[in-house]
Amino acid sequence: MQHLRSLRVLTPPLRAGLTRAGGAPAVAPPAIFAAARWSRGLFATAPAPQNEGVPLPNRSTGPGKSTISHAPGHTAETIMPTDNQALVSKTAEALYLTEMMRGMALTLQYFFQPKVTLDYPMEKGPSSPRFRGEHALRRYESGEERCIACKLCEAICPAQAITIEAEPRPDGSRRTTRYDIDMTKCIYCGMCQEACPVDAIVEGPNMEYATETHEELLYNKAKLLANGDRWETEIAQNLKSESLYR
After folding, report:
1. How far apart are CA 172 and CA 200, in angstroms?
2. Phi, psi (5° rounding) for residue 114?
3. Which of 16, 170, 197, 241 has the fewest CB atoms within 10 Å distance of its CB?
4. pLDDT at 223 over 60
């Protein structure tokens, strides 16, 4: 046997048995040693030999070490994995132990860092003064309604979610008798608030108004005025902080 043309199962017992008569190492191409190191027991086929004079690893140099002659007068020492090391490596890869340890190390790294989440609804983050939430109708400090029934908000609403009916008062002014908002149609664009000349209709800071029925999201004038009375202090502060930009 002058050359080894193929190697099916690359295991230490087979490598130890690949010797010539008399104990001399058999000649094999360098690709065999590369396959022996990286295949870890898998099936591999070595290409046809390109040159001669490259001996197989000499097992007598010590456990896990071998001397390979790459060229005349030049040798290099390589570390060959033992059977136990290969078995442990295979087991770790098969059970994803390596990836699991990497993931747990990353978790441990973030465990001692400051928290970036809030325990909602017990904890709440700050909201912007421009936040557009639940609608409200405001009053003057005297208790009189601000709305003058100009219907600008109804006309500018792109979703046609606002319905207003009005009638004149004995003093000649106009006041609304009906002010409905279909909250399921509203797109929270804020155009009704921008169009109102007296800051009567606003989108307040409240965002927690989920309901169980559709009818509960059809707001009437009484509901909107109640929202305004509840959030008047915060609404006034937000409008004041935004007065320079309107």
Report:
1. 19
2. -60, 150
3. 170
4. yes
**Calpha distance 166→99 (Å, rounded):** 69
- Residue from 196, 201, 240 nearest 224 by CA: 201
Q: Is 209 helix (H, G, I), strand (E, B) or coil?
A: coil
DSSP 148-183: ----HHHHH-TT--EEEEEEE-TTS-EEEEEEEEET
The predicted pLDDT at position 224 comes to 97
Is the separation of the CB atoms in 9 and 49 below 8 Å?
Answer: no
**Separation CA 16–CA 27 (nearest Å):** 13
Per-residue pLDDT tens digits for 50-69: 544 545 555 444 454 444 44
Mean pLDDT of 44-48: 47
Q: What are phi and psi of 73, to 5 degrees?
A: 85, 5
Question: Topology of 134-242 in CATH?
Answer: Alpha-Beta Plaits (3.30.70)
3-state secondary structure of 120: coil
User: Is the preceding peptide bond at 121 cis, omega within 30 degrees of 0?
Assistant: yes
Structure tokens at 97: 């132990």
Can you tell me the distance from the alpha carbon of 114 to that of 133, in angstroms, rounded to the nearest whole number?
Answer: 30
Q: Is the pTM of this model over 0.85?
A: no
Pairing of strands 218-219, 174-182: antiparallel
Q: Any idea where the domains of the chain sit in the sequence?
A: 84-116, 134-242
Q: Give the angle subtended at the CA of 203 by the CAs of 197 and 205, to the nearest 5°.
A: 135
